[in-house]
UniProtKB/TrEMBL annotation:
Coiled coil: none
Keywords assigned: Hydrolase
Listed Pfam families: Abhydrolase_6 (PF12697)
Name assigned to this protein: Alpha/beta hydrolase
Lineage of source species: Bacteria, Bacillati, Actinomycetota, Actinomycetes, Actinomycetales
Species whose genome carries this gene: Ancrocorticia populi
Amino acid sequence: MHIVLVHGLWLRVSVWDEVLALLIASDYMPITAVPLPADASSASPTTLEDQLDAVLAAIDSQPEPAVVVGHSAAATLAWMAADRRPDRVAQTVLIGGFPQSGGEQYAPFFPIVNGAMPFPGWEAFEGPDSEDLTGAQCQEIASAAIPVPEAVARSTVTYTSEARFDVPTALLCPEYSPEQARKWIAADDVPELSRTKHVSYADLDSGHWPMLTRPAQLAAAIADFAE
């Protein structure tokens, strides 16, 4: 399988560096970490479709079927990729996030300032999300954070194919447990996954950014699902 890694809000593609190195060291190839465009300052700011196009280009770059790994809000990007390429995506792996429903905004979580959604600070993530991060890691994330263009964050999510519900999905559960995720899906709190035919679960025992705090565990979980 071709592993495609898609990072979440505010992050840079380098957030995958350690996971990528561990997968390569274990002789797992091919792997693509997708650098999502995120230009909020130009006359034509980045849109959600631009980010989706970057993910689809990564999927199409290799002949092997893709395992698309989406972190946090990018669970929706991974799910949209499965919707657009149900014949090319063998599985989605969703880390700490769930796909938005069609008609919802992609990431309506924090205020827009000057055409973008800036990193809101650590108060918004107090508790299980961030308790395993070191002070240096918190500073690294905040200082490197890229504001999310409004045309990404407030874009309406659209799906085109019922075949996405046939794509197997794995939930890697960091700041919540697999049991909690099962309950949310059973209660139809996550309509997209409530209709998905094959959903599996794994516990990561980490906060919201396991690629920084549990890279070896995360790399092993991704490889297990890809195999």
